[in-house]
Each structure stands twice: as structure tokens, then as C-alpha cells.
Design a protein that fits this description.
111 residues; mainly alpha
Amino acid sequence: MSQEPVQNITSDDKLWAALSYVFAPLIGIIVLLMEDKKARPFIKFHAVQSIAASIAFWIIATIITTVTVGFGGLCVPVLWLVFLYWAYQAYQGQTVNIPMLTDFIKKQGWA
């Protein structure tokens, strides 16, 4: 995780970024539909990353649940705690660096 703060971040930016992780992917999608929020780089980065992370983790959780005949469903609460930690980091004004996913999003030009 990157500990460097991004400049010119308002408390509104921090709130929307954190909510993008707590209610992923719903709030992230809503943020991308709002022109004023989408124009803010900090909010857009976290919104796109929360959408991609939630999709990736639901795919992984589904595979684990299928392979372990239902016992993998226990990993969902743990994943939700990870998302809460990322929300905390975003609310502190820090960029969250998710291995492989953050680089992929930046190379695609999504954030």
C-alpha cells in the first residue's frame, strides 16, 4: 500500500472513495455515472479499482466455493474485511495499491 497522500483531496473525495469499497461495486458504478465525481482523479481511481477488485474477488470466491464444495463461502467475510481496510486507507487520503490489479487498471487507462 502506498502511504503517499494525493494533493488537493477534499473530505468529500475521501468519503466517496471509502464508500466505493464498502458498497462495491454499486457506489463505484454510481460515481462513474456522476460527472462531477468522475472528474475528480482520487474518486475515479478508487471507484474503478473497487469495481475491478469486487469483480475479481467474487470470481475467486466462486471458484474457491465450487472447488471446496461450499466451504469456500467462509472466505467472503474475510474479503469484506479486506475491503473495509481499503476503505479506511482511502478515507485517510491514501492510494490503495492492490498487487497486479492496480497496475492493470493504470495500463488500461481506466484510472
